Amino acid sequence: MISLDRITKSFGNSDAVSNVSFSVPEGSFLVLLGPSGCGKSTMLRMLAGLDQPTSGKMRFGDTLVADGEAGFSLPPADRNAGLVFQSYALWPHMTVSGNIEWPLKVAKLPTEERRARVLEAMEMLDIEKLANRYPGEISGGQQQRVALARMIAPRPKVMLFDEPLSNLDATLRVEMRFELLKVHAATGATAVYVTHDQVEAMTMATHVAVMNNGRIEQFDAPDRLLAEPASAFVAGFVGTPAANLIPIENGNWFGTMPDPLLRDHSGHAMVRAEQITLADEVGPRTFDAVLAEVVPMAGRLLVTGIVNGTRITAVSDQVARPSGRLRFRLPTAPAAIFDKQGTRIS
Ligand SMILES: Nc1ncnc2c1ncn2[C@@H]1O[C@H](COP(=O)(O)OP(=O)(O)OP(=O)(O)O)[C@@H](O)[C@H]1O
């Protein structure tokens, strides 16, 4: 179990992480998801013991690993936690097996035990054939497998990942997502995984903490983030495609078309792409748009147009008119309404 109790990390006058509390059970796969600068790497560094919280407490199981007020932080080596970075950080002068063995040597494990663990880790990542190669002699994807093997060889209870797949191409990324989940399931460790890629969060996580400006916008299971986003930020960040956030003003779509369903609300109405249709005729809740792009997806089309400066995406089977103009029809009810601060109100 990992639990955080009101963790804050300040740099000078600004908080990189602000008053964050959550807990996840042992064996979870927690993803810290958010845009650049939201504080997710700072969170991970505190979990690893590389940074100390300014205030708040952090526990791994029953062990207190950091206490900001008391100025206490358990050193990284005493946390039974492994870390994998975006850059693989392998020792270039050591072979693959030498790299994997290194942390076991540091931990002073006997030779036989080290050999067995190196072999076990290489088998799990399917890299036995690379044992005697040097990092410069293997591909980026293979290097990331070695970094993973090196991380799991000491059998950490907590596995920490900082954007580990972002240097890989799209196909390798999908492959490595599967490998990571396999390793996680086989070890039973608790994983904390930092990414700005919501697809990684949606496909791998048991729990997701969506972060924005150092705070947690929503802490939930991936499907809950999609079904019940707590804020406009979450609604606009998750989903493929993310839901449309349509400006509403005093109960008017785009500030121009009144709709009793919007009551008198101002802010944004969430409308999913699959709720919007393309219309030939002008009618209730139709809006003319300028075509921005058409993306084929799973046999259907994601059609994006601009209405009053807002990008709107619909799922359609219909190819848009060649004129570059199109007409969207909004559904009778939005999936959610957020106020001007982005808080969900309906
Ligand atoms: N050592 C530091 N000194 C001062 N400010 C820092 C330091 N480290 C991080 N920050 C600031 O804290 C905020 C959060 O940074 P952090 O690196 O945690 O974000 P992030 O979500 O991981 O972003 P990215 O995905 O770009 O790495 C940023 O505004 C950053 O400028």
Automatic annotation (TrEMBL):
SUPFAM superfamilies: P-loop containing nucleoside triphosphate hydrolases (SSF52540). One of its GO terms (cellular component) is ATP-binding cassette (ABC) transporter complex, substrate-binding subunit-containing. Keywords: ATP-binding, Cell inner membrane, Cell membrane, Membrane, Nucleotide-binding, Translocase, Transport. It is a peripheral membrane protein. InterPro entries: AAA+_ATPase (IPR003593), ABC_transporter-like_ATP-bd (IPR003439), ABC_transporter-like_CS (IPR017871), ABC_transpr_MalK/UgpC-like (IPR047641), P-loop_NTPase (IPR027417). Residues 2-238 form the ABC transporter domain. It is found in: Cell inner membrane. One of its GO terms (molecular function) is ATP binding. Its main location: membrane. It holds the Pfam family ABC_tran. It comes from the Bacteria. PANTHER family: MALTODEXTRIN IMPORT ATP-BINDING PROTEIN MSMX, TREHALOSE IMPORT ATP-BINDING PROTEIN SUGC. Belongs to the ABC transporter superfamily. This is Iron(III) transport system ATP-binding protein. It comes from Rhizobium metallidurans.
